Amino acid sequence: MTRRNKRISAIMCFFQYFSYKQDMEMIIETFEKDIVPENYSEYFVLFKDDFKELLIAAVAQEQLIINTINNLIPQGWTFDRLPLIDRAILFMAISEITLEFDDKAIIINEAIEISKLFCEEDQYKYINGILDRL
Q: Which letter does DSSP use for residue 78 in this model?
């Protein structure tokens, strides 16, 4: 299991969180119990304690992280106007950087690569532009 797999799984949990605003611990539990076993692939994996802690800590600091993202995106846009997958990817990357979870360059590179997998064709350029402003 690579960090990218964990990041993708975490992004899917953030996607669920921003879709329904459920409790993050419940989202993680459901993800690991129901989604991973049924859909295990190169993308969905079980978390280790470090990523569970990151997800919970990020949600606890949600407003700080969203404010950081709002300061990075173009004027006239807000976090809430972004597509859900973009929100999840940016929230994951900024959370990791804010909580000093990994090296900033690695986090940004992973976010860009993941956005190439899940976002619209050139959306990774937008994600890259936002994260480069950090």
A: -
Q: Give the separation between CA 113 and CA 97, rounded to whole angstroms.
A: 16
Exposure of 49 by Cβ count < 10 A (0-12 exposed, 13-18 middle, 19+ buried)? exposed
φ and ψ at residue 2, rounded to 5 degrees:
-100, 165
Judge: domain 3-132, CATH 1.10.10.60. no
Task: Quote the Cα angle for 62-68-71, to 5°.
Answer: 140
> 40-82 pLDDT, tens per residue?
566 677 777 788 999 999 999 999 999 999 999 988 899 999 9
Paired tokens of 4: 């990218």
Taking alpha carbons only, the member of 92, 94, 55 closest to residue 72 is 94
Percentages helix, strand, coil for the chain (3-state, rounded to 5) are 75, 0, 25
Q: Is the dihedral of CA 117, 119, 120, 125 positive or negative?
A: negative
C-beta separation of 32 from 46 below 8 A? yes
Predicted TM-score of the model (pTM): 0.92
